[in-house]
From TrEMBL:
Protein name as it appears in the record: Insulinase family protein
Residue ranges of the region described as Disordered: 270-305, 360-385
Superkingdom of origin: Bacteria
Biased composition (Acidic residues): 367-382
Length: 514
């Protein structure tokens, strides 16, 4: 396996967001300003890598809609982000019905662009869908009125039909990586997380009743979250929000009978939890069986490539755990193809290994393999050229994971990660709601959201090589780590026969040099 060249440890230029002035609350609006966990003292580095926003205003409207209001005094733009959690939906409404329902909201908002200066974005995320609107601050009342029109419309058939067509048009057949990740997610996290993997057949077969039920449950204001980044205070739009609450009413009994949660993280994380991962290892008993998944149709060379993906679940109960996991992943990604996704307090860590030159009857391209192939192996799988190449690549990966990171490597990885986050926010028009959405995933209570990105930067920049090495040894070492592994090979049975035979006894490495 060819390791990637190291990325330079350079500090990206800091992009400071304007610090909004304090908000004067009016007596006509009963709002709450929470700052249970005040931001840590920002050093010069932290100030460049985390937004110095003031504590937001928060209110639960009469219909149960939770509003987080981020004020930046004098900003000419306005950003709204509708967050629709999926965890509380019934299993029959998960997947394609929920996606189509959320996409219909985005399409209806895009229709407002003809008379308003709007830009609409639709973002699927783990456990939720987000629809964001970017416009001119002066048009915020009109945008709120437009939301009221959408959520009070009596007919849903037209929007849902258009959304189904749009989703079917945008959906692409799953490639090798998508198939591998789908199998790994099911194995490690259970059907709850795997329900978000959507196929074209599921989109076409979703019934009209399921679509309507999904729309009514997903857009129920008692479960949704509205995040606003504007120049005015929340009280300044009391009338528009009251009108929205009066028109956007709960109209479903599909949700559990309870009052609306006043905590955003409760709304995002209620519902079934991911299943406990299997207590399996890759090298020592109990060994995780290597699962083979059929490759996609050979429509393109890229989509039909053979691939091995090793994955494990990570328990990430604290903000520090999540920050350290993301820092370690960013450091290792400098030379290996490693991914990390976090849903709530669970992470999915994967290592992707392309199986190049797969196939029967292909000559060995490595002179050393030609010599080895001339020798008779006791185990027929040992004579398989692809298996020998894979064994060497896995040895390279194991040895690199065991290399103790240098302090400058971690600082460089943290600066690149955090700097890229702030650059993305600037490119997106200084949209605080996008950063607020990311802060939700880094928090364990609503009072921590305002300080989450600053604490994330602080934790990353303060991480030591010993902490990173201990994390890798405990969770990521292919031979010695804690259980919780699974692995999948994507390719035809004929191509991967040698690999499957060899790896049935667990992951294989080259013997150590004598």
């Amino acid at each position: 396996m060819t390791r990637r060249p190291r990325l330079p440890a350079c500090l990206l230029s800091g992009l400071l967001l304007s610090l909004g002035a304090g908000c004067k609350r009016k007596d006509t609006v009963k709002v709450e300003i929470f700052d249970d966990a005040p931001p840590p003292a920002l050093t010069e580095a932290l100030g460049a890598l985390a937004p110095p926003w003031p504590a937001p205003e928060r209110v639960v409207l009469a219909d149960g809609l939770l509003v987080h209001w981020l004020r930046e005094e004098g900003t000419p733009a306005v950003h709204l982000r509708l967050v629709f959690p999926t965890g509380d939906l019934k299993p029959a409404l998960q997947g394609a019905p929920a996606l189509i329902a959320a996409r219909s909201v985005a399409l209806e908002l895009e229709a407002l662009a003809a008379r308003l200066s709007l830009r609409v974005e639709f973002t699927p995320r783990a456990g939720r869908y987000e629809v964001s609107v970017h416009g001119v601050d002066a048009e915020l009342p009109a945008i709120l009125a437009g939301l009221g029109d959408i959520f009070s419309a009596p007919a849903l058939e037209g929007p849902l039909v258009r959304a189904r067509k749009q989703v079917a048009h945008d959906l692409r057949p799953p490639d090798a990586e998508a198939r591998a990740l789908g199998a790994l997610t099911t194995r490690l996290l259970g059907d709850v997380a795997a329900g978000e993997l959507i196929t074209a057949n599921a989109v076409q077969e979703a019934s009209e009743t399921a679509l309507r039920d999904a729309w009514e449950a997903l857009t129920d204001p008692r479960s949704a979250l509205l995040i606003v980044h504007a120049g005015d205070t929340l009280a300044g739009h009391d009338g528009g929000l009251s009108d929205l609450a009066g028109r956007w009413k709960p109209r479903t009994k599909l949700l559990a009978a309870r009052g609306p949660a006043e905590e955003a993280l409760v709304r995002l994380r209620q519902g079934p939890r991911p299943a406990a991962p299997p207590a399996l290892h890759l090298k020592r008993p109990p060994i995780a069986p290597l699962e083979r998944v059929d490759p996609p149709p050979p429509s393109t060379t890229r989509s039909s490539r053979s691939l091995l993906v090793l994955g494990r679940s990570l328990p990430l109960a604290s903000v520090r755990d999540r920050s350290l996991a993301r820092l370690v992943q960013r450091h290792l990604q400098a030379e290996l193809d490693i991914r990390l996704s976090i849903t709530g307090d669970v992470g999915l860590f994967t290592i992707h290994v392309p199986l190049g030159a797969a196939g029967r009857g292909k000559p060995a391209t490595d002179p050393l393999e030609e010599v080895e192939a001339a020798d008779e192996a006791a185990d027929p799988s040992e004579a398989d050229p692809l298996n020998r190449r894979l064994r060497r690549e896995l040895t390279v990966i194991r040895d690199y994971l065991r290399e103790r990171p240098l302090a400058q490597d971690l600082i460089g990885a943290a600066q690149l990660w955090l700097g890229a986050r702030m650059v993305a926010a600037s490119v997106d028009g200084e949209d605080w709601t996008a950063l607020w959405s990311e802060a939700l995933d880094l928090s364990v209570a609503d009072g921590e959201i305002v300080a989450a990105l600053a604490r994330d930067a602080e934790t990353m920049l303060a991480a030591t090589p010993d902490e990173a090495a201990a994390f890798i040894t405990r969770w990521l070492d292919l031979e010695k780590s804690e259980p919780g592994w699974a692995w999948v090979a994507v390719g035809s049975e004929a191509d991967l026969k040698g690999i499957i035979a060899a790896e049935s006894k667990g992951i294989q490495f080259d013997p150590p040099p004598e």
